[in-house]
Amino acid sequence: MNQKLVELLIAKGLRIACAESCTGGLLAGAITSVPGASECLDMAVVTYSNGAKHKLINVPGSLLETFGAVSHEVAVAMAEGILKLAEADIAVAITGIAGPGGGTTEKPVGLVFIGIATKESVAVIECRFKGVREEIRSQTVAKALELAYTTAKEE
User: Fold this and answer.
1) Strand residue runs (E) in the chain
2) What is the CATH number of domain 2-154?
């Protein structure tokens, strides 16, 4: 899917940007593994800590305090923040709990929010992936690539 995404973005003259938390740069790595990705990938940041989310992509501290980093609201703010910072056409934001620790009853391991922003809209998908840490991260990247591809087709 990464090859198809890069080819589509280039063909349509679209720029993409990524803000990642639990995937730690794996989405950007998947995109940049495709030759020519520099023609469409504008920027990618790993905002693993709340401080980085706030400082680098302007996620309001109040959202982080009220809803927590792993939330629909923070995924929206991350997607909007990286879209604005990069001045891209499409932004993908990922925040979640890859495990093995860190999960709660309310927010279990495998809970991931993927935000997709364009200049016109923002959408967030809530996912509940199963497996060990690397499987959750891999499933997250695959879903994010799929969502980005679908969004790029509509642009």
Assistant:
1) 16-20, 41-46, 90-96, 111-118, 122-128
2) 3.90.950.20
Give the pLDDT of residue 46. 98
The pLDDT, as a whole number, for residue 117 is 98
pLDDT at 112: 98
Pairing mode of beta strands 90-96, 16-20: parallel
- Please state the pTM of the whole predicted model: 0.98
- Angle of helix 72-86 versus helix 50-57 axis, rounded to 10: 40
CA distance 95 to 72: 9
pLDDT at position 16 is 98
Domain boundaries, the chain: 2-154
Cα end-to-end span (Å), the chain: 17
CA pair distance 117, 93, nearest whole angstrom = 8
Q: State the chain's maximal CA–CA distance in angstroms.
A: 44
